Amino acid sequence: MSGAGYSPEEQRKRKLASDCLKRATEALAKGNWDYAVEMFMTAVKMVPDNLMYRQSLRGSERKKYKDNKTGASMAFLKLSSLRSRIKKARSAKNWVDMDLAAEEALAINPWDGQFNADLGEATRERGFLEIASFAYEQATGPDGAPTNKDFLIALAEVYEMRKNFTAAISVLDRVMAIDPLNGAVRSKIQSLGADMTIHKAGYDDAKSTHEVREDKQQAIKQGYEESVKGDVKTNKEVLGPGESVEADLQRMVRKEPANVAHYQKLADYYRREGKLEESAKTYKLALDVSGDANIREQMEDVELDMVRRNVNFAKEAAARDPNDEQSRAIVVELANELLSQEIEVFSRRVDRYPNDLKLKHELAKRFMRCKKHDKAIPLLQAASKDVRLEAQVLASLGTCFLAKKQNNLAKRQFEKALEKLNSTESPIPYKECCYYLGRLAEEANDNKSAEQYYSDILAIDYDYKDVAKRLEEIQGGDEESNQIDMDHGEDA
User: Fold this and answer.
1) Cβ distance 249 to 275 under 8 Å?
2) CA 450, 455, 457, 463: dihedral to nearest 10 degrees?
3) Number of Cβ atoms within 10 Å of the Cβ of 124
4) CA 104 → CA 58, 114, 473, distances in Å?
5) Which CATH number applies to 254-352?
6) 227 near 193, Cβ under 8 Å?
7) Residues with pLDDT less than 50, the chain
8) Which of 26, 19, 24 has the alpha carbon at shortest distance from 60?
9) Does the pTM exceed 0.70?
10) Would you kindly state where each structural domain of the chain is located, as residue ranges?
């Protein structure tokens, strides 16, 4: 080491780090992992921007714990103070101490995703981008937290800072696989594609803002064209006009990349063919070109279809093994995600189309599923003005009032709904109204009315809920009082 360009103090530190490296290497050869870790840690402290020291340290730490993936025994008891120290250092923007604290934590558990991410954040802020990449790669690796979206996005940002656009896009694709409806990440992928084109073409050194803007526009256009060309190649670009609907539509987009109608036709084709990812991607291109809110809604519809498809896949997987608790948990998680996305989408549309009563009804049904009855009630009251929806909406209103223990209001809604329902055309809401009215009658000790409502249900569905048992008890003179079980009733 020549030491050229280094101060005497820096030269001293680098000499010490080099000596520690030699001792650590000797310790590794003898299997003395504790001493190897100590020496590599000292080297890291002396020369914190050396990637090889960090990598060697991590490898030694893992060998020390015999690759057990969990680190030291009772590690969680030893890490509490380090977590507090990292939090304090982050708040104070003391990146040096945060770096050291993260390394000390990793010496206890080198596989911990959060501590690897903490190290990535600290080294990124210190300008050690190679080390930041390494740390975030460990954080998002198979032994860390491979599905943590925040860690993945941070890794992509570091790759972008290093001009490694291909790697950044690849990481963000992983985020999209976890969160298909993340519009911000999807937009970022598109932007990175344009940035990659600019970088490859040598536009980074454009002399003026005007040049940069023109180059960026050209790059985006080129990005659209390359995206479509890539799809064509997968379908054999040798196909001539008229031989493939998809290829023909892609050629139209390639020929006129500013024509929104071509994108829409291609996206519609993909949706009809069940190629939902391609459809959503193409709608996104159309939205970028036009900014049209109608196209955004079409894209949202496809994105919702993608989540619904994932829910169905998860249900099928869970059905194959009813004892697999993880599969059932995934179904619940995806179903909740779908419900959340639907509420978000329908809320925006209700604001945009205030006179669309069907939309209000759809949004109300989603609020009912997550037991937000206060939000559902005004939507249902508005939707009841649509005569086509009135009976079903009144039944839903009754259910909401019942959930809020406003039994008189619930009874009125169920009775009004029942006047407009018949068991042949609307069997489910018909049975639901009869059931709840029967339960309310029981609570009011009006067994004659309850008997009539339950009998009406049994005439068309003898196995409906617990109706047969309740009717038997009433006819047997059992006057047991019952609190209406909304969780039982809402399974209809």
Assistant:
1) no
2) 110
3) 20
4) 11, 13, 69
5) 1.25.40
6) yes
7) 1-2, 4, 203-210, 212-217, 219-221, 224, 226-238, 478-481, 488-492
8) 24
9) no
10) 8-66+78-199, 254-352, 383-489
Q: What homologous superfamily does CATH list for 8-66+78-199? A: Tetratricopeptide repeat domain (1.25.40.10)
For the 383-489 domain, the top CATH level (class) is mainly alpha
Question: What pLDDT digit, counting tens, does each position of 77-131 carry?
Answer: 778 889 999 999 999 999 999 999 999 999 999 999 999 999 999 999 999 999 9
By residue count, the chain amounts to: 492
The string of pLDDT tens digits covering residues 302-349 is: 989 988 888 888 888 888 888 888 888 888 888 888 999 999 999 999
Same fold flag, 8-66+78-199 and 383-489? yes
Q: What percent of the chain has pLDDT over 70?
A: 86
